[in-house]
Amino acid sequence: MKSPLPKVLHRVGGRTMLDRVLGMLERAGIEDLVVVVGFGRAAVEAELAATHPRARIAIQEEQLGTGHAVRCALPLLSGGADAVGIFSGDTPLLRPATVRELAAEHRRRGAAATLLTAELEDPTGYGRVLRGPDGLVTRIVEQKDASPEELRVREINAGAYVYDLPALRESLVRLRDDNAQGEYYLTDTIGLLGAEGRPLAAVVAAGSAFEVLGVNTVEQLLQAEVVLHERQQESA
After folding, report:
1. CA distances from 104 to 66, 91, 110, 131 (A)
2. Among 64, 14, 10, which residue's Cα sits nearest to residue 36?
3. Which of 111, 160, 203, 204 shows its CA 20 to 30 Å from the CA of 42?
4. CB within 8 A of 137, min separation 6: which ones?
5. What single DSSP character describes residue 16?
6. Is the pLDDT of residue 236 over 90?
7. Domain range holding 163?
């Protein structure tokens, strides 16, 4: 982002991306929020205190990957929960209706995990969603670990999931870091569950591909600003 500011604290439409994502989840009916904080901890905690004081904070002392981040959050999850949603703090355009659809499909299918996907003309930078001959999701491969054939897949992982909580716990402890980035990928839990024959489900984002835009660069931040402005104009 070419900035010392933590990525999720960059603003889109006058609000931080973190505030937008958490506000969207609340509008979707999710009130039990746990935020994993690592880099820029003090600044992120200050933002949460100002905008979402009820959110609980899990500390990721070392940034060892998305799977490790979720491990850090597990002790804070509600003891009565049977499912958990996992969302990225850099997707400010995700809509509450999409989250509700993801949760509904998870319940309908009785899935161990349900993920949000999208079809992109240019999937560069995103993990690819791989499906078997029957059309069902089998695993996710990150771009840096993908073969040339896998890189031609245009269906991408949007970084939004609903998991059966026991299945999530079981698969997280089995993660390994033998990959291109030396990290514990949350996405590998999908392959682990699929290899066990556990049911997996997917929801393909029905709206604009911009809805699942993950902001990783200044250019993408500006793009998100434009899309948000167009949405506001359409609803005016």
Report:
1. 24, 20, 10, 21
2. 64
3. 160
4. 115, 129, 130, 131, 190, 194, 200, 201, 202
5. E
6. no
7. 7-235
Distance CA 27, CA 87 (A): 14
Any domain includes 182: yes
- Looking at residue 13, which CATH number applies to its domain? 3.90.550.10
pLDDT, residue 81, reads 82
- The Cα-based distances of 98 to 27, 105, 172 in angstroms read 11, 11, 25
How far, in Å, CA of 199 to CA of 194, rounded?
A: 7
Query: 119-152: per-residue pLDDT in tens?
Result: 999 999 899 999 999 999 999 999 999 999 999 9
CA-CA-CA-CA dihedral for 25, 79, 61, 143, to nearest 10: -60
pTM of the predicted model, to two decimals?
0.94
In angstroms, the CA 134 to CA 154 distance is 18
What is the tally of structural domains in the chain? 1
Cβ distance 128 to 141 under 8 Å? yes
Does 138 reside within a domain? yes
Residue in 140, 135, 36 with CA at minimum distance from that of residue 84: 36
Mean pLDDT, range 103-117, rounded to an integer: 97
Instruction: Identify whether 1 is part of a domain.
Output: no
Amino acid identity, position 10: H
Average pLDDT over the chain, rounded to whole? 94
Q: Mean pLDDT check: name the lowest of 39-53, 56-70, 197-211.
A: 197-211
Give the torsion sign (CA, 219, 102, 131, 179).
positive
**Does the structure show a pLDDT above 90 at 209?**
no
